[in-house]
Amino acid sequence: MVSLRSRKLLRRGILVGIIIVAVVLVVLEVLIAGGYLVVNSSGKSPVTVSSVYLKVQQGKGATGNPWFLPGYVNYTSNDGYPLQVSPGGTWKVVWNFLQVDTVNHTLYSVTVTSPFTIQSTSPALPWIVPPADENGVLAIYVTAPSTSGVTYSITLNINAITPS
Known about the structure:
Elements: H1 4-33, E1 47-57, E2 68-69, E3 72-75, E4 83-85, E5 90-99, E6 105-107, E7 109-112, E8 117-122, E9 127-129, E10 136-143, E11 151-159
Parallel strand pairs: 1-11
Antiparallel strand pairs: 1-3, 1-4, 2-5, 5-10, 6-9, 7-11, 8-10
């Protein structure tokens, strides 16, 4: 026969256990909601992009200046890098530029270092950029490789030279 004291201790132990589990669940919810604890639905480690170097292949105008400025950008910690992407996931790199020549110039294509790929651009390429466009914006959608848990530094090349 179980004594009254043993039953009270058992009930108290169960109550303490329930309280501990509830507190742990609340703490986990707060950490997930605050972005401190990330739940990866694929079960794979993310791909880390430590930095992005963007370079424009371009000519020079009659004044000797390049057609587009800036001609290169190094996206680093000030721009949100390192960045973590799901394996096979896509993210956007935005190039804000000026077209400083006095004639139209075309952005023909964008390439990225392997094993990354370009999914698309906005606006679509080729894109004819008018003279003295001071508000140029090209969004480049880059897809990460499917290999998880790897860190990369990538290079984007924008081609503004007439393809041969």
